[in-house]
Amino acid sequence: MDTRHFDFVVIGGGSAGYAAARTARGSLEKVAIIDDAGELGGLCILKGCMPSKTLIYSSELLHLAQQGDKFGLDITSATMDMAALSKRKRVIIEEFASYRRGQLGSDRFTLIRDRASFTDERTLVLANSGERITADFFMIATGSVVNTPDIPGLRETPHWTSDDVLDLDFLPESVIVLGGGIVACELAQYLRRVGSRVVQIQRGDRILRDSSPEASAVVSRVFLDEGIELHTGTSINSVRNDGGGISVEFSQGGQDFQVHADHLLNALGRRPNVEGLALDKAGVELLESGSIRVNDMQQTTNPRVYAGGDVASPHEIVHLAVMQGEVAAKHACGKDPEPVNYDTVTTV
Question: What residue ranges define each of the domains in the chain, with the CATH number in brackets?
Answer without folding.
Answer: 3-146+271-344 (3.50.50.60), 162-268 (3.50.50.60)
